[in-house]
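Anyone else keep sequences and structure tokens together like this?

Example one:
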Amino acid sequence: MTEKIRKWFASTLSILFGSMIGVSCSAPAYIGPGSTILKGKVKDSDTLQVITNIRVSLISGFTNNRVSGIDGVYSFYNHDGNFTLAAEDIDGATNGAYLPTNFTVTLPYDFDGYTTNIDILMKTNG
């Protein structure tokens, strides 16, 4: 009797896991809303030189912050086609003083899976 149960259990597991593997190979898994990579550079609006140490915020039901690197680059993964980008100088006058800026962005409906480049131009404070 024990041997029959063991064989039945092994067969059941084989069918169960075999069908799961078949499903995972034949159909893509849904892992949540689509996303795009949103990236760009923060630049001085007059000279077009990159600006470091600018806090860039992506606002879309939640707020996600990044600080522009030495090359002025920022990047986010984004799941929404409508959002606001805000930029603020967080290091004072260390690399020049800049006025905060923000703007709303609306991407096309089929934005999922793309990389979107948006450079942020900032005006000097003074």
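And example two:
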Amino acid sequence: MGLSQPFVTDEFRISLAETIAWCLAKPKPWNPQYTFRSPELAYQSLHHFNNKSDDFRTTLINDVVEMRCWLLRGENNKTPRPQPANSLHGGRLFGYNPDINCFHGLEAQECEDFLNVASVPPWDTWVAFFDRPINSLWEVCLVSWVPAELVDMLDAAISVCPEESIWWTDKFDGGLTDELERVGLGYQATACD
């Protein structure tokens, strides 16, 4: 068996740093349904996102990530890209598998529509899409960053998801989780957790 391609590359960590900067710059109080769905980053449609083509989803997510990068860098791309993230800033990484979603909306009710009816996290929070197994259970995964203030709501959403299409990335062994731990990006539970 050859070496597998790493998940947590410098590009992943730079995308994470940009995601965190973009989201934390949003004025508070945050509205879970609207704050992290910036029109300038809007993706085409929910139905297109759930297209089973991994190439299409990868392109769609990369377009959002690239547009966010371009907007953060400003006119003429004069602002340099950030250094690779070395902290989650109190937030947590969230995984979503679009291939096993039932579109029942239970999760959206638990998190004030931070996730939509298909459990898709808002596009401002998207970090990367992996179209290969991230562990022994998940074949594909959209990774998003959730700010600390919204973690409890997402815990509630995860707890009612019968098909288990959403989860915290630190909850499974192997693959992505191990690589995040190795670079210090694993979730650090507090005494209240």
